[in-house]
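Forgive a beginner's question, but would it be possible to get any protein sequence you like and the tokens describing how it folds?
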Amino acid sequence: MSVSAPALGRGTGKKKNLTFIISASSVGTLIEWYDFYLYGVLAIFFSKHFFSPELNPSVAFIASLFVFWTGFLVRPFGAVVFGHLGDLIGRKFTFMLTLVLMGTATFLVGCLPVYDTIGALAPVLLVACRVVQGLALGGEYGGAATYIAEHAPDGKRGLYTSWIQTTATMGIVISLLVIMAFRLGMGDAAFSAYGWRYPFLLSAVLVILSGYLRLRLEESPLYAELKSQGKSSHNPVKETYSNAKNIGYMVIALFGATAPEGVVWYTGQFYALFYLIAVLKIPYITAYWMLIVALLIGATGFIFFGWLSDKIGRKWIMVSGFFLAVVTYIPVYQTMLANKDNLPLLTILVIYMVILVTMVYGPIAAFLVEFFPARIRYSSMSLPYHIGNGVFGGLVPAAGASLAAAYPAATLPIFGSVGPLVGLLYPMGIAAIGVVVGVFFIPNTTSQTRIWDEVSGHRRRPPLVPDQP
């Protein structure tokens, strides 16, 4: 007889309802994404304040984007460190620790001296803060997603974990709203001079509030049961990374799910924002509002596709999103370029790209949780997720800008002259790999995958063969 979710969690004290659990976990994760993406939205200001004024502005901006990418680059290392702690000590302690580290690093960004004050040390300190942010985020997502999934009943895991998927997009929305409030309230000159610091300083208040909510959470009942039965891992790093079969699963998860999902995520949101402002020359306030509207409308797709994945499986929803990205990105951006004065059409096209984001991102937390065993779940799912999103996905803005700068008059078969759109070849290529690996190697996990059976010895791993939709 399998153990069900409601029967677990003995000895953990008064239970919190699932709504509070999802809310407290998601709010903390939302704040961490807000912290992390402030830099991305304000990259142009960092290029002006933290690099030598002798640099060409385009070179300084690209350098600023690579500093942005540094935070993504170290996320896998955070996944290893905090994944180990999450599997060894517990889910709650670990994602409390990541929240504090992220909040501290973000606050310090708002206090950093600029290039005119300390010279070349300015970008060094900026990179250091981005490294701490990246390490913290590397441990946050896996903990929050695992925590919610291990509270959710088997039949609704996709629906409940989809709420955590909304937090990255909503983190961008909040960062845009906060930045607009300060820019409009202070004026562009004052904001450019020193006001850009305030959104980072505000992070301290938000972290304290979300930390209070998380302190009221208890340990995951599934993890608590594993611990009480002596089935939790005593050396998660060794068990995760010395097991050839588990490494194989992580590679498949990386190229069949998280890397293509990562590039779709950044192309549909950050790349779109940069394109609206830098290429189409739309005023920043208009571009911000267009993206906010698109994100708020499109974000409902996270919940819908999470719910749908409980019914038909995670695989085919994600693969469909990858395929649509490959075949429609260049036509969508070409249409934007040809209709740059048509703001309603531009907004609809951005909404479409956000919907693709929700298709590939909405079901992925449930998929990753179901793909790996509980004793090393935090470690196993965190690494491919943060390599995929951090290294592959986080490179989208810098890679796109670099390719566009290197090949300004590029032409492609079928599409003809693409100009700055040549940068889209990078996310399209990664998404195409996702289609192939997803179709042939990703299992179609559904609500029938029972992660609770693990604590009663009946764990059934989905087979690594293609499933029928």
Summary: The radius of gyration is 22 Å. Residues 82 and 139 are 5 Å apart (CA to CA).
